[in-house]
Design brief:
Elements: H1 2-23, E1 26-29, E2 32-35, H2 36-50, H3 54-62, H4 65-77, E3 84-88, H5 94-107, E4 114-119, H6 122-126, E5 132-134, E6 147-151, H7 156-162, E7 163-174, H8 180-192, H9 194-202, H10 205-217, H11 221-230, E8 234-241, E9 246-252
Parallel strand pairs: 3-4, 4-5, 6-7
Antiparallel strand pairs: 1-2, 7-9, 8-9
Helix pairs in contact: 2-10, 3-9, 4-5, 9-10
Protein backbone atom coordinates (compact mmCIF):
# COMPACT_ATOMS: atom_id res chain seq x y z
CA UNK A 1 0.00 0.00 0.00
CA UNK A 2 2.77 2.44 0.90
CA UNK A 3 4.63 1.68 -2.33
CA UNK A 4 1.49 2.24 -4.35
CA UNK A 5 0.86 5.56 -2.63
CA UNK A 6 4.45 6.63 -3.20
CA UNK A 7 4.22 5.83 -6.91
CA UNK A 8 0.99 7.76 -7.20
CA UNK A 9 2.54 10.76 -5.47
CA UNK A 10 5.51 10.72 -7.85
CA UNK A 11 3.14 10.46 -10.80
CA UNK A 12 1.12 13.40 -9.47
CA UNK A 13 4.29 15.44 -8.98
CA UNK A 14 5.43 14.75 -12.55
CA UNK A 15 1.98 15.72 -13.84
CA UNK A 16 1.86 18.91 -11.77
CA UNK A 17 5.41 19.90 -12.72
CA UNK A 18 4.84 19.23 -16.43
CA UNK A 19 1.61 21.24 -16.28
CA UNK A 20 3.46 24.19 -14.76
CA UNK A 21 6.18 23.87 -17.41
CA UNK A 22 3.59 23.77 -20.17
CA UNK A 23 1.69 26.68 -18.72
CA UNK A 24 4.73 28.92 -18.60
CA UNK A 25 6.63 27.58 -21.60
CA UNK A 26 8.29 30.43 -23.43
CA UNK A 27 8.41 30.97 -27.17
CA UNK A 28 8.97 33.93 -29.46
CA UNK A 29 6.58 36.45 -30.93
CA UNK A 30 9.03 38.05 -33.32
CA UNK A 31 11.95 38.94 -31.05
CA UNK A 32 9.72 39.23 -27.97
CA UNK A 33 9.67 36.26 -25.55
CA UNK A 34 6.08 35.36 -24.66
CA UNK A 35 4.17 32.51 -23.02
CA UNK A 36 3.32 29.91 -25.65
CA UNK A 37 -0.39 30.07 -24.83
CA UNK A 38 -0.42 33.81 -25.57
CA UNK A 39 1.46 33.65 -28.86
CA UNK A 40 -1.36 32.36 -31.03
CA UNK A 41 -3.76 35.07 -29.91
CA UNK A 42 -1.12 37.64 -30.83
CA UNK A 43 -0.56 36.01 -34.24
CA UNK A 44 -4.32 35.93 -34.83
CA UNK A 45 -4.55 39.64 -34.03
CA UNK A 46 -1.72 40.44 -36.46
CA UNK A 47 -3.48 38.84 -39.41
CA UNK A 48 -6.86 40.13 -38.29
CA UNK A 49 -5.42 43.65 -38.44
CA UNK A 50 -3.84 43.30 -41.89
CA UNK A 51 -6.38 41.08 -43.68
CA UNK A 52 -8.05 43.76 -45.80
CA UNK A 53 -4.70 45.17 -47.00
CA UNK A 54 -2.76 41.90 -47.04
CA UNK A 55 -2.37 41.52 -50.81
CA UNK A 56 -1.74 45.23 -51.34
CA UNK A 57 1.02 45.19 -48.72
CA UNK A 58 2.60 42.13 -50.35
CA UNK A 59 2.78 44.08 -53.60
CA UNK A 60 4.25 47.13 -51.87
CA UNK A 61 6.82 45.25 -49.75
CA UNK A 62 8.14 43.12 -52.61
CA UNK A 63 7.52 45.56 -55.49
CA UNK A 64 5.28 42.85 -56.93
CA UNK A 65 7.98 40.16 -56.93
CA UNK A 66 5.90 37.95 -54.59
CA UNK A 67 3.69 37.22 -57.59
CA UNK A 68 6.66 35.75 -59.45
CA UNK A 69 7.60 33.65 -56.39
CA UNK A 70 4.08 32.22 -56.23
CA UNK A 71 4.02 31.58 -59.97
CA UNK A 72 7.27 29.62 -59.67
CA UNK A 73 5.94 27.75 -56.63
CA UNK A 74 2.87 26.58 -58.55
CA UNK A 75 4.98 25.77 -61.61
CA UNK A 76 7.09 23.43 -59.47
CA UNK A 77 3.93 22.07 -57.86
CA UNK A 78 2.54 21.30 -61.33
CA UNK A 79 -1.04 20.56 -60.17
CA UNK A 80 -3.09 18.32 -62.45
CA UNK A 81 -6.89 17.93 -62.58
CA UNK A 82 -6.63 14.71 -60.53
CA UNK A 83 -4.95 16.50 -57.60
CA UNK A 84 -6.71 17.13 -54.29
CA UNK A 85 -4.78 20.01 -52.70
CA UNK A 86 -4.93 21.27 -49.12
CA UNK A 87 -3.68 24.85 -48.88
CA UNK A 88 -2.97 25.43 -45.18
CA UNK A 89 -2.58 28.97 -43.86
CA UNK A 90 -3.92 29.82 -47.31
CA UNK A 91 -4.75 33.43 -46.47
CA UNK A 92 -6.56 35.17 -49.30
CA UNK A 93 -6.26 32.21 -51.67
CA UNK A 94 -3.65 33.52 -54.12
CA UNK A 95 -1.86 30.15 -54.24
CA UNK A 96 -5.18 28.31 -54.56
CA UNK A 97 -6.30 30.35 -57.57
CA UNK A 98 -2.94 29.86 -59.27
CA UNK A 99 -3.13 26.10 -58.71
CA UNK A 100 -6.60 25.87 -60.24
CA UNK A 101 -5.58 27.98 -63.24
CA UNK A 102 -2.46 25.87 -63.78
CA UNK A 103 -4.45 22.62 -63.65
CA UNK A 104 -6.91 23.98 -66.23
CA UNK A 105 -4.07 24.87 -68.60
CA UNK A 106 -2.50 21.43 -68.23
CA UNK A 107 -5.65 19.34 -68.01
CA UNK A 108 -7.49 20.96 -70.90
CA UNK A 109 -10.93 19.30 -70.93
CA UNK A 110 -10.31 17.11 -67.88
CA UNK A 111 -11.54 19.73 -65.40
CA UNK A 112 -9.66 21.33 -62.51
CA UNK A 113 -7.87 20.21 -59.40
CA UNK A 114 -9.67 20.45 -56.06
CA UNK A 115 -8.25 22.97 -53.58
CA UNK A 116 -9.31 23.30 -49.94
CA UNK A 117 -8.11 26.53 -48.34
CA UNK A 118 -7.61 26.41 -44.56
CA UNK A 119 -6.68 29.28 -42.27
CA UNK A 120 -7.05 29.88 -38.54
CA UNK A 121 -8.02 33.50 -39.14
CA UNK A 122 -11.58 34.26 -40.23
CA UNK A 123 -10.85 37.83 -41.45
CA UNK A 124 -8.23 36.40 -43.82
CA UNK A 125 -10.76 33.90 -45.15
CA UNK A 126 -13.30 36.70 -45.53
CA UNK A 127 -10.84 38.37 -47.91
CA UNK A 128 -10.72 35.13 -49.95
CA UNK A 129 -13.47 35.26 -52.63
CA UNK A 130 -14.20 31.55 -52.36
CA UNK A 131 -14.95 28.86 -49.81
CA UNK A 132 -12.46 28.30 -47.01
CA UNK A 133 -12.35 26.43 -43.70
CA UNK A 134 -11.35 28.09 -40.44
CA UNK A 135 -9.22 25.41 -38.78
CA UNK A 136 -6.18 25.39 -36.52
CA UNK A 137 -3.47 24.00 -38.78
CA UNK A 138 -1.77 22.42 -35.76
CA UNK A 139 -4.81 20.17 -35.28
CA UNK A 140 -6.45 19.65 -38.65
CA UNK A 141 -9.89 18.12 -38.21
CA UNK A 142 -9.48 16.23 -41.47
CA UNK A 143 -9.22 12.56 -42.39
CA UNK A 144 -5.89 10.81 -42.74
CA UNK A 145 -4.49 10.06 -46.21
CA UNK A 146 -6.94 12.40 -47.94
CA UNK A 147 -4.89 14.89 -49.98
CA UNK A 148 -2.45 14.43 -52.82
CA UNK A 149 -0.59 17.72 -52.40
CA UNK A 150 -0.16 20.06 -49.46
CA UNK A 151 1.58 23.46 -49.66
CA UNK A 152 2.23 24.43 -46.06
CA UNK A 153 4.46 26.81 -44.16
CA UNK A 154 4.66 24.82 -40.94
CA UNK A 155 3.03 21.96 -38.99
CA UNK A 156 4.87 19.25 -40.87
CA UNK A 157 3.54 16.34 -38.80
CA UNK A 158 -0.08 17.17 -39.60
CA UNK A 159 0.89 17.47 -43.25
CA UNK A 160 2.24 13.92 -43.22
CA UNK A 161 -0.91 12.59 -41.55
CA UNK A 162 -3.43 14.02 -44.02
CA UNK A 163 -1.43 13.36 -47.19
CA UNK A 164 -2.08 10.26 -49.28
CA UNK A 165 0.78 7.79 -49.83
CA UNK A 166 2.73 9.31 -52.69
CA UNK A 167 1.46 12.77 -51.76
CA UNK A 168 3.73 15.78 -51.73
CA UNK A 169 4.43 18.41 -49.09
CA UNK A 170 5.50 21.82 -50.38
CA UNK A 171 6.36 25.05 -48.62
CA UNK A 172 7.01 28.55 -49.94
CA UNK A 173 8.35 30.62 -47.07
CA UNK A 174 10.66 33.52 -46.31
CA UNK A 175 14.08 32.13 -45.50
CA UNK A 176 17.70 33.20 -45.03
CA UNK A 177 19.64 35.24 -47.59
CA UNK A 178 22.86 33.54 -48.70
CA UNK A 179 25.03 36.53 -49.66
CA UNK A 180 26.38 38.45 -46.66
CA UNK A 181 26.41 41.69 -48.66
CA UNK A 182 22.85 41.31 -49.92
CA UNK A 183 21.83 40.18 -46.43
CA UNK A 184 22.91 43.52 -44.95
CA UNK A 185 20.91 45.43 -47.56
CA UNK A 186 17.90 43.15 -47.08
CA UNK A 187 18.01 43.57 -43.29
CA UNK A 188 18.19 47.35 -43.61
CA UNK A 189 15.21 47.38 -45.97
CA UNK A 190 13.22 44.97 -43.80
CA UNK A 191 13.63 46.83 -40.51
CA UNK A 192 13.58 50.40 -41.83
CA UNK A 193 11.18 50.37 -44.77
CA UNK A 194 8.64 47.56 -44.32
CA UNK A 195 7.17 48.80 -40.98
CA UNK A 196 6.89 52.29 -42.50
CA UNK A 197 4.97 50.87 -45.47
CA UNK A 198 2.77 49.01 -43.00
CA UNK A 199 1.96 52.24 -41.21
CA UNK A 200 1.25 54.16 -44.43
CA UNK A 201 -0.78 51.51 -46.27
CA UNK A 202 -2.37 49.44 -43.49
CA UNK A 203 -2.08 51.90 -40.58
CA UNK A 204 -0.25 49.16 -38.69
CA UNK A 205 3.45 49.49 -37.83
CA UNK A 206 3.55 46.77 -35.16
CA UNK A 207 2.21 43.91 -37.31
CA UNK A 208 4.87 44.46 -39.95
CA UNK A 209 7.58 44.88 -37.34
CA UNK A 210 6.51 41.45 -36.08
CA UNK A 211 6.62 40.11 -39.65
CA UNK A 212 10.26 41.03 -40.25
CA UNK A 213 11.26 39.76 -36.80
CA UNK A 214 9.42 36.44 -37.24
CA UNK A 215 11.19 35.84 -40.56
CA UNK A 216 14.53 35.95 -38.73
CA UNK A 217 13.25 33.37 -36.23
CA UNK A 218 12.30 30.87 -38.95
CA UNK A 219 14.75 27.94 -39.39
CA UNK A 220 17.29 28.29 -42.18
CA UNK A 221 16.98 26.20 -45.32
CA UNK A 222 19.09 23.27 -44.15
CA UNK A 223 17.49 23.10 -40.71
CA UNK A 224 13.97 23.22 -42.13
CA UNK A 225 14.84 20.43 -44.58
CA UNK A 226 16.04 18.35 -41.61
CA UNK A 227 12.76 19.03 -39.78
CA UNK A 228 10.82 17.78 -42.81
CA UNK A 229 12.93 14.61 -42.95
CA UNK A 230 12.36 14.03 -39.23
CA UNK A 231 8.63 13.73 -39.98
CA UNK A 232 9.36 10.76 -42.33
CA UNK A 233 9.16 12.64 -45.62
CA UNK A 234 11.42 11.33 -48.38
CA UNK A 235 13.27 12.96 -51.29
CA UNK A 236 13.37 16.25 -49.38
CA UNK A 237 14.81 19.16 -51.31
CA UNK A 238 14.75 22.94 -51.45
CA UNK A 239 15.71 25.71 -53.81
CA UNK A 240 16.25 29.38 -53.13
CA UNK A 241 14.59 32.27 -54.91
CA UNK A 242 16.18 35.74 -54.91
CA UNK A 243 19.30 34.46 -53.13
CA UNK A 244 17.27 32.91 -50.31
CA UNK A 245 14.84 35.73 -49.56
CA UNK A 246 12.32 32.92 -49.97
CA UNK A 247 12.81 29.18 -50.40
CA UNK A 248 10.67 26.36 -51.77
CA UNK A 249 10.89 23.12 -49.77
CA UNK A 250 9.46 19.81 -50.96
CA UNK A 251 9.11 16.25 -49.67
CA UNK A 252 7.08 13.12 -50.46
CA UNK A 253 5.08 10.73 -48.30
CA UNK A 254 6.38 7.41 -49.65
Amino acid sequence: MSVSLCNNLRAYYRFAFSSVQKRFKQTHFGFEPVDEEKKWQKVYEVFENVATRYDLMNDAMSCGVHRLWKDEFVRQMHPLPTFNILDCAGGTGDIAFRAVAHSVRNGQSLGTCTVTVVDINQPMLNAFPGFGLMLNVYHLNLNCSTFSLLPLAFVIGEAYRVLKPGGRFMCLEFSHVQSKYFSKLYDWYSFNIIPVLGKIIANDWNSYQYLVESIRQFPNQERFAEMIEMQRFKEVSYNNLCNGVVAIHSGYKL
